[in-house]
Amino acid sequence: MTPYDTLPEWLRPVADTARTVRPEQLSRFLPPEAGGRESAVLVLFGEGPDGPDLLLIQRAATVSSHPGQPAFPGGAVDDTDADVVAAALREAEEETGLDPSGVHVFATLPALWLPPSGFVVTPVLGWWRAPSPIGVVDPGEVESVVRVPVAELLDPANRVSVSHPSGFVGPAFEVRGLLVWGFTAGLLSRLFALCGWERPWDASVLRPVPDVR
Protein backbone atom coordinates (compact mmCIF):
# COMPACT_ATOMS: atom_id res chain seq x y z
CA MET A 1 0.00 0.00 0.00
CA THR A 2 1.39 3.42 -0.97
CA PRO A 3 0.99 6.62 1.09
CA TYR A 4 -1.54 7.73 -1.52
CA ASP A 5 -3.65 4.66 -0.83
CA THR A 6 -3.87 5.57 2.85
CA LEU A 7 -5.69 8.80 2.03
CA PRO A 8 -9.50 8.80 2.17
CA GLU A 9 -10.99 8.70 -1.30
CA TRP A 10 -12.53 12.17 -1.00
CA LEU A 11 -9.07 13.70 -0.40
CA ARG A 12 -7.33 12.10 -3.38
CA PRO A 13 -8.31 14.88 -5.84
CA VAL A 14 -6.23 17.25 -3.69
CA ALA A 15 -3.23 14.90 -3.86
CA ASP A 16 -3.71 14.50 -7.61
CA THR A 17 -3.81 18.27 -8.09
CA ALA A 18 -0.67 18.77 -6.00
CA ARG A 19 1.31 16.49 -8.32
CA THR A 20 1.00 18.73 -11.35
CA VAL A 21 -0.08 22.20 -10.18
CA ARG A 22 2.04 25.16 -11.26
CA PRO A 23 2.57 28.18 -9.00
CA GLU A 24 0.84 30.55 -11.41
CA GLN A 25 -2.31 28.42 -11.11
CA LEU A 26 -2.43 29.17 -7.39
CA SER A 27 -1.50 32.84 -7.23
CA ARG A 28 -0.39 35.78 -9.33
CA PHE A 29 2.16 36.59 -6.62
CA LEU A 30 5.20 34.43 -7.31
CA PRO A 31 8.42 34.45 -5.26
CA PRO A 32 11.21 36.82 -6.34
CA GLU A 33 14.44 35.31 -7.62
CA ALA A 34 16.16 36.45 -4.43
CA GLY A 35 15.02 37.66 -1.05
CA GLY A 36 11.99 36.94 1.09
CA ARG A 37 11.67 35.07 4.38
CA GLU A 38 11.11 31.33 3.93
CA SER A 39 7.94 30.16 5.68
CA ALA A 40 5.34 27.41 5.58
CA VAL A 41 1.68 26.87 6.40
CA LEU A 42 -0.11 23.63 7.22
CA VAL A 43 -3.21 22.98 5.11
CA LEU A 44 -4.61 20.22 7.29
CA PHE A 45 -7.58 18.14 6.15
CA GLY A 46 -9.41 15.99 8.68
CA GLU A 47 -12.74 14.30 9.28
CA GLY A 48 -14.81 15.75 12.10
CA PRO A 49 -18.40 15.38 13.29
CA ASP A 50 -19.58 17.41 10.28
CA GLY A 51 -17.54 15.52 7.69
CA PRO A 52 -14.30 16.55 5.97
CA ASP A 53 -12.85 19.72 7.44
CA LEU A 54 -9.87 22.08 7.50
CA LEU A 55 -7.98 23.46 10.49
CA LEU A 56 -7.84 27.26 10.70
CA ILE A 57 -6.72 29.77 13.29
CA GLN A 58 -7.68 33.40 13.85
CA ARG A 59 -4.65 35.48 14.63
CA ALA A 60 -4.79 37.76 17.65
CA ALA A 61 -5.56 41.40 16.84
CA THR A 62 -2.32 42.45 18.53
CA VAL A 63 0.18 40.52 16.38
CA SER A 64 2.28 42.43 13.86
CA SER A 65 1.70 40.08 10.91
CA HIS A 66 -1.85 39.89 9.53
CA PRO A 67 -3.57 40.84 12.83
CA GLY A 68 -7.04 39.43 13.44
CA GLN A 69 -7.02 37.48 10.20
CA PRO A 70 -8.13 33.84 9.84
CA ALA A 71 -5.30 31.75 8.45
CA PHE A 72 -3.68 28.35 8.20
CA PRO A 73 -1.36 27.52 11.09
CA GLY A 74 2.19 28.35 10.10
CA GLY A 75 5.06 30.79 10.17
CA ALA A 76 8.68 31.38 9.36
CA VAL A 77 11.18 28.55 8.95
CA ASP A 78 13.66 28.52 11.83
CA ASP A 79 17.29 27.45 11.70
CA THR A 80 16.33 24.42 13.79
CA ASP A 81 13.73 23.22 11.25
CA ALA A 82 14.88 20.46 8.91
CA ASP A 83 12.68 21.79 6.10
CA VAL A 84 9.37 23.52 5.35
CA VAL A 85 7.39 20.44 6.42
CA ALA A 86 9.04 20.47 9.83
CA ALA A 87 8.39 24.20 10.13
CA ALA A 88 4.69 23.85 9.28
CA LEU A 89 4.21 21.05 11.81
CA ARG A 90 6.15 22.89 14.53
CA GLU A 91 4.18 26.09 14.04
CA ALA A 92 0.88 24.20 14.06
CA GLU A 93 1.85 22.54 17.33
CA GLU A 94 2.89 25.86 18.87
CA GLU A 95 -0.29 27.64 17.76
CA THR A 96 -2.96 24.97 18.27
CA GLY A 97 -1.47 22.23 20.47
CA LEU A 98 -1.73 19.79 17.57
CA ASP A 99 0.18 16.51 17.93
CA PRO A 100 2.28 16.31 14.73
CA SER A 101 2.59 12.52 15.01
CA GLY A 102 -1.06 12.23 13.97
CA VAL A 103 -0.50 14.11 10.71
CA HIS A 104 0.38 12.43 7.41
CA VAL A 105 1.97 15.00 5.12
CA PHE A 106 1.11 13.89 1.60
CA ALA A 107 2.30 16.80 -0.56
CA THR A 108 3.66 20.32 -0.72
CA LEU A 109 2.45 22.97 -3.13
CA PRO A 110 4.72 25.40 -4.99
CA ALA A 111 6.09 28.26 -2.91
CA LEU A 112 4.11 31.50 -3.22
CA TRP A 113 4.86 35.14 -2.45
CA LEU A 114 3.14 37.15 0.28
CA PRO A 115 4.01 40.77 -0.62
CA PRO A 116 2.63 42.51 2.52
CA SER A 117 4.93 40.54 4.84
CA GLY A 118 7.75 39.56 2.49
CA PHE A 119 7.28 35.84 3.14
CA VAL A 120 7.89 33.09 0.61
CA VAL A 121 5.24 30.59 1.71
CA THR A 122 5.16 26.85 0.99
CA PRO A 123 1.73 25.28 1.63
CA VAL A 124 2.18 21.85 3.24
CA LEU A 125 -0.77 19.49 2.69
CA GLY A 126 -1.63 17.11 5.50
CA TRP A 127 -4.14 14.39 6.31
CA TRP A 128 -5.12 14.35 10.00
CA ARG A 129 -5.22 10.58 10.31
CA ALA A 130 -5.17 10.63 14.14
CA PRO A 131 -6.78 13.85 15.43
CA SER A 132 -5.56 15.24 18.73
CA PRO A 133 -7.06 17.86 21.05
CA ILE A 134 -6.53 21.43 19.84
CA GLY A 135 -7.07 24.89 21.23
CA VAL A 136 -5.46 28.28 21.75
CA VAL A 137 -1.97 27.83 23.17
CA ASP A 138 -0.92 31.50 23.40
CA PRO A 139 -3.76 34.09 23.40
CA GLY A 140 -1.19 36.72 22.54
CA GLU A 141 -0.68 35.02 19.17
CA VAL A 142 -3.94 33.24 18.38
CA GLU A 143 -7.50 34.28 19.22
CA SER A 144 -9.29 31.08 18.20
CA VAL A 145 -8.76 27.67 16.62
CA VAL A 146 -11.52 26.09 14.54
CA ARG A 147 -12.18 23.07 12.35
CA VAL A 148 -14.22 24.35 9.41
CA PRO A 149 -16.22 21.77 7.42
CA VAL A 150 -15.23 21.68 3.77
CA ALA A 151 -18.93 21.57 2.85
CA GLU A 152 -19.41 24.98 4.46
CA LEU A 153 -16.45 26.42 2.56
CA LEU A 154 -17.86 25.08 -0.71
CA ASP A 155 -21.42 26.32 -0.06
CA PRO A 156 -22.05 29.20 -2.52
CA ALA A 157 -24.08 30.96 0.19
CA ASN A 158 -20.85 31.31 2.22
CA ARG A 159 -18.73 32.68 -0.61
CA VAL A 160 -18.17 36.40 -1.20
CA SER A 161 -15.53 38.78 -2.48
CA VAL A 162 -13.63 41.26 -0.32
CA SER A 163 -12.33 44.70 -1.24
CA HIS A 164 -9.29 46.37 0.31
CA PRO A 165 -8.60 50.13 0.31
CA SER A 166 -5.49 49.36 -1.74
CA GLY A 167 -7.76 48.26 -4.58
CA PHE A 168 -7.31 44.54 -3.96
CA VAL A 169 -10.42 42.44 -4.61
CA GLY A 170 -10.32 38.72 -3.92
CA PRO A 171 -12.36 35.69 -2.88
CA ALA A 172 -13.49 35.14 0.69
CA PHE A 173 -15.51 32.75 2.82
CA GLU A 174 -18.00 33.62 5.58
CA VAL A 175 -17.92 30.59 7.88
CA ARG A 176 -18.23 29.92 11.60
CA GLY A 177 -18.32 33.62 12.40
CA LEU A 178 -15.11 34.25 10.45
CA LEU A 179 -14.41 36.17 7.27
CA VAL A 180 -11.60 34.19 5.65
CA TRP A 181 -9.83 36.32 3.05
CA GLY A 182 -6.38 37.19 1.71
CA PHE A 183 -3.76 34.50 1.08
CA THR A 184 -5.75 31.77 2.86
CA ALA A 185 -8.95 32.35 0.93
CA GLY A 186 -7.13 32.79 -2.36
CA LEU A 187 -5.29 29.49 -1.97
CA LEU A 188 -8.45 27.62 -0.93
CA SER A 189 -10.44 29.12 -3.80
CA ARG A 190 -7.83 28.10 -6.40
CA LEU A 191 -7.34 24.67 -4.85
CA PHE A 192 -11.08 23.94 -4.76
CA ALA A 193 -11.41 24.97 -8.41
CA LEU A 194 -8.45 22.87 -9.54
CA CYS A 195 -9.74 19.84 -7.62
CA GLY A 196 -13.13 20.08 -9.27
CA TRP A 197 -14.85 20.81 -5.95
CA GLU A 198 -15.87 24.39 -6.60
CA ARG A 199 -19.57 25.19 -7.01
CA PRO A 200 -20.74 28.29 -8.92
CA TRP A 201 -20.89 31.33 -6.62
CA ASP A 202 -21.63 35.03 -6.97
CA ALA A 203 -18.35 36.96 -6.92
CA SER A 204 -20.25 40.26 -7.13
CA VAL A 205 -21.30 39.97 -3.47
CA LEU A 206 -18.75 42.31 -1.90
CA ARG A 207 -17.56 42.76 1.68
CA PRO A 208 -15.00 45.28 2.97
CA VAL A 209 -11.83 43.96 4.57
CA PRO A 210 -12.46 44.10 8.34
CA ASP A 211 -10.68 46.73 10.39
CA VAL A 212 -9.00 44.90 13.25
CA ARG A 213 -7.10 47.90 14.65
Compact description:
This protein is of the alpha+beta class. Helix content is 21%, strand content 33%.
Fold and architecture overview:
By secondary structure, this protein is of the alpha+beta class. It has a domain at 3-149: Alpha-Beta Complex (Nucleoside Triphosphate Pyrophosphohydrolase), CATH 3.90.79. Helix content is 21%, strand content 33%. The protein is built from 5 helices and 12 strands. It has helices spanning 12-20, 23-26, 84-96, 150-154, 182-195, and strands at 37-48, 51-59, 70-71, 74-76, 103-108, 112-114, 119-128, 142-149, 159-163, 169-175, 178-180, 206-208. Strands 1, 2, 3, 4, 5, 6, 7 and 8 form an 8-stranded mixed beta sheet that branches. A 4-stranded mixed beta sheet has the order 11-10-9-12. Strand 9 and strand 10 (169-175) form a beta hairpin. The longest helix has 14 residues, at 182-195. The model has no long low-confidence stretch (mean pLDDT 94).
